[in-house]
Each structure stands twice: as C-alpha cells, then as structure tokens.
C-alpha cells in the first residue's frame, strides 16, 4: 500500500535512503521472509516503510518500521528503524534497532 507523507517545510535532510537500501537493512535484521505492509513516499523520496515477519512461536509477529527523521522540534531528527513485537495482535515490546549515524546505517 502506498500513501502520501505529510509535508514538512522545515525538513532538510542530506541523504534519504532508497527503498532498496532500507530493504537491505530489513534483510540484515531478519533472516525470515517478510511481507511489505506499508510504504509512504513524498516529493523527497521514501518517508515510511513497514514490514512484518513471523515470530518464533505461534501467534507472534515482528514488525519493522523505517521512518525518515524530521526536523520538527517534537520529532526524532534521525532516520531509524523501530521493531515492535506482537503476540496475538497485541504489542508486547519494541525498541530502535537501526539508525543512520554520520550517513551510515548502524545496527544497534
């Protein structure tokens, strides 16, 4: 599913990862076959990209979500990938698993 991102006139990021670049990070984070769930682009490129992969046990799902950093004072200025773990459609935990530092992806 592809949607349009909200526009932010203050945004001025140097490097915006491509869809393939983010996919390659997803592949590093999970060796399981994943399903692309949502992709949002704006005039600058990829804004948000979500995937899901099966968990270890029945009823478990792992969601990875890339989001481009924002320069708003209330937003995260760093491009990052978050992970959320679900059991039977309920989130049970999550954290940041990768981010761009000095133009390079860093797996945390």
Account of the protein in words:
With 108 residues, the chain is mostly beta strands. It has one domain (14-107). The chain contains 1 helix and 7 strands; from the N terminus they run E-H-E-E-E-E-E-E. The chain has one helix at residues 19-29, and strands spanning 2-4, 35-42, 45-54, 60-67, 80-87, 90-101, 104-107. Strands 1-2-3-4-5-6-7 form a 7-stranded mixed sheet, covered by helices on one side. Strand 5 and strand 6 form a beta hairpin. It is globular. The model is unreliable at 6-13 (pLDDT under 50).
Structural class based on helices, strands and sheet pairing: mainly beta
One letter per element, helices H and strands E, the order comes to EHEEEEEE
State the distance separating the first and last CA atoms: 28 Å
How is the quaternary structure best described?
single chain
Topology diagram in text:
Layout: E1 2-4, H1 19-29, E2 35-42, E3 45-54, E4 60-67, E5 80-87, E6 90-101, E7 104-107
Parallel strand pairs: 1-2
Antiparallel strand pairs: 2-3, 3-4, 4-5, 5-6, 6-7
Structure characteristics:
108 residues; mainly beta; 7 strands
Summarize the structure.
With 108 residues, the protein is mainly β.
């Amino acid at each position: 599913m592809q949607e349009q991102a909200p526009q932010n006139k203050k945004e001025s990021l140097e490097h915006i990862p491509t869809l393939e670049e983010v996919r390659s990070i997803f592949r590093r984070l999970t060796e399981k076959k994943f399903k692309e769930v949502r992709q949002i682009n704006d005039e600058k490129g990829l804004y948000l990209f979500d995937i899901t992969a099966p968990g270890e046990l029945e009823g478990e799902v792992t969601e990875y979500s890339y989001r481009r950093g924002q320069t708003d004072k209330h937003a995260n200025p760093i491009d990052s990938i978050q992970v959320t773990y679900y059991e039977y459609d309920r989130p049970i935990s999550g954290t940041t698993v990768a981010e761009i530092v000095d133009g390079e992806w860093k797996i945390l």
